[in-house]
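ARCHIVE RECORD
Type: protein–small molecule complex
Small molecule: manganese (II) ion
Source of inputs: curated submission
Record status: active
Notes field left blank by submitter.
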Amino acid sequence: MSLNASRSAHSGAPVLSPEVRDALTTHRPVVALESTIIAHGLPRPRNLRIAAELEDLVRSAGAVPATIAVLDGRPRIGLDKAQLDRVAMDPAMRKLGHRDLAPALAAGASGATTVSATAFLAARAGLRVFATGGLGGVHREWVRSQDESADLRLLARTGITVVCAGVKSILDVPATLQRLETLGVAVLGYGTDRFPGFYLTSSGEPVDWTVRTPQEVAAVMRAQDALGGADSALVVANPVPAADQLDPALHDHVLAEALAECQERGIAGQAVTPFLLERLVRGTGGAALEANLTAVRGNVALAARIAGAWAAAVPRSPAPEARQEPAPRQDPAAGA
Ligand code: PSU
Ligand code: MN
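STRUCTURE (tokenized, with ligand):
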């Protein structure tokens, strides 16, 4: 990829959609949604319908959805229909972690944002609540591959509340929880004292803190702010209902095969997570996809309620760098 592809000198500040900007200025609840799960975590064309469905879920819970992606070198917070369509359907959409943002901006590239890139952009724009499926984390085989998702370290220094169904079960869950502890990221079990297992209701690992209402989560967020330490994320771990989880025996069996194949084929880096997720969906006859979707839907709905409780408790103004889409004439790339 050539970094000279675009010399546009526009700032890297996120561009807010009119709806998101309006919600932030009027202190209405907003929920950030990541786009990697749409572009690289779910099969086409169903991913587009799901992207729209997730936004509708946020709206019906009284909040404004802000799906985040980078399009033509500009970080976007809140996508219109055509932009969402592009993220879901364009096979050239890259996978952008936090470290990829600057090269993507400089090159004028387009890509879906992972948890790390989404959380970074959302927090920078003044958003406080974010929903995803499962966080990235420490991969099994870490001793050999040193593969730990950039999600963890980015969350350790970003003031955002992330609602997730735990971390993806393809990971080393105990090691990931240990890393979250080392990095100082608080983890709340939502209605449970067990850390959820993404496709599974429980990973079997304990969590130290349990909350039962969105108001309780908002109270923890307020306490974080009152303490006034360095920014750090709050992980709200929300399990899939037991009736909707993947059969644990099937899960373990298919995952073992997928991990073996991943190693045999030497798959590494950014490709690992999409490969394993796809293999799980195939190996379970689609059941893993349904459990994944149930988890994401539940997280999105809960995030909207948390954003509502938070907005009711703490009216705030948006970060100063958040700005509206400029008129085309003001864009230096347009020849100013
Ligand atoms: N959760 C899902 N599907 C996904 C992901 C999470 O249900 O596709 C994505 C998220 O964007 C997460 C990323 O940040 O996987 C982690 O990738 P990696 O392990 O390469 O850091
Ligand atoms: Mn990785």
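CURATOR ANNOTATION: The chain is about 45% helix and 15% strand.
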